[in-house]
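Q: What residues go here?
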């Protein structure tokens, strides 16, 4: 009962994270159209979130000594890497293509779990990934325009790899007796990301006066400061907190597939708020993504186990965590 409740809670958090991340583009696009450089919007997003999480970072300052590699990796990959690679990619290839390549991350997560960690994955997760990627191809209408810019494609693939780092590091941080508090990991990740993006975005060249004006959202004037507050508080702080906790309650592969809903949510919000209408293939694709996410989370991933000998009795003993000597006795009894 408790495991089922934890899984349902993890699914709810993953959906909340997908919604929060999905709303970032809807709020950020009016700011960009108002005159802010995309990289400046990214810097404001990360730096503002780091400022909000600064008290949390101070509270968990022991993490700098205990888990420096985890904090550095999370900041470089999960925060700065995803943002920088994605925005670099969309400057060279269509946004839809870049988004599709980035959301190949769930498939890459499965590859990491299966071939690097040598852990089995469920068929449900694999089928869910295939359906989710196929649905995303429809949502972003990948066939509408593809330019084979090698650097752009590599940057988009870099964003996908960095997103794999987000899921893997989020899960890794909760392992063992030296587990890192997820809020502390996020806080320091945002601080590291801010430092890296400051070098890339050069915010001192930004026109900060634009933040005091308004931006057009679907023909309605909205204060730029309000949009920025949404990007910082909801689309970053809330999104990362719920996302990291959901990965620890579910698994990297399942949470990764559920995260594909971000593209669907972003498209629907753009339809409602920015008047960017959906085509029939996009609606069908969104439904396929939902089905894929549901299938992926319908079964728990298989836990890692030691070497399993032949025979169902021996396999059960291995899964139960008995010693090698006891397992040998079980094997002899079964022959």
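A:
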């Amino acid at each position: 009962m408790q495991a089922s409740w934890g899984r349902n809670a993890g699914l709810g958090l993953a959906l909340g994270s997908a919604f929060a991340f999905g709303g970032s583009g809807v709020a950020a696009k009016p700011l960009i159209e108002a005159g802010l450089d995309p990289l400046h919007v990214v810097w404001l997003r990360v730096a503002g979130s780091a400022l909000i999480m600064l008290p949390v970072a101070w509270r968990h300052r022991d993490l700098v000594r205990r888990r420096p590699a985890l904090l550095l990796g999370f900041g470089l990959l999960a925060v700065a890497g995803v943002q920088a690679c994605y925005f670099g990619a969309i400057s060279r290839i269509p946004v839809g293509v870049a988004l599709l390549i980035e959301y190949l991350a769930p498939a890459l997560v499965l590859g990491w779990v299966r071939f690097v960690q040598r852990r089995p994955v469920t068929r449900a997760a694999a089928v869910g990934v295939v359906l989710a990627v196929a649905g995303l191809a429809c949502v972003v209408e990948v066939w509408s325009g593809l330019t084979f810019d090698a650097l752009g494609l590599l940057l988009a693939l870099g964003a996908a790899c960095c997103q794999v780092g987000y899921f893997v590091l989020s899960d890794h941080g909760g392992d063992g007796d030296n587990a890192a508090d997820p809020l502390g990991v996020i806080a320091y990740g945002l601080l590291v990301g801010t430092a890296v993006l400051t070098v890339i975005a050069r915010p001192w060249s930004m026109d900060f006066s634009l933040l005091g004006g308004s931006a057009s959202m679907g023909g309605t004037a909205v204060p730029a400061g309000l949009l920025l507050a949404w990007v910082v508080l909801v689309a970053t702080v809330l999104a990362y907190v719920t996302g990291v906790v959901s990965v620890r309650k579910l698994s990297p592969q399942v949470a990764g597939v559920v995260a594909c809903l971000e593209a669907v949510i972003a498209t629907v919000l753009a339809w409602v708020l920015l008047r960017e209408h959906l085509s029939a293939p996009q609606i069908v694709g969104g439904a396929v993504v939902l089905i894929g996410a549901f299938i992926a989370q319908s079964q728990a991933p298989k836990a890692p186990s030691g070497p399993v000998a032949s025979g169902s009795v021996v396999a059960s003993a291995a899964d139960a965590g008995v010693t090698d000597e006891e397992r040998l006795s079980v094997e002899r009894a079964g022959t």
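A: Context that may help when evaluating the design: The chain has 16 helices and two strands. The first strand starts at residue 214 and ends at 217.
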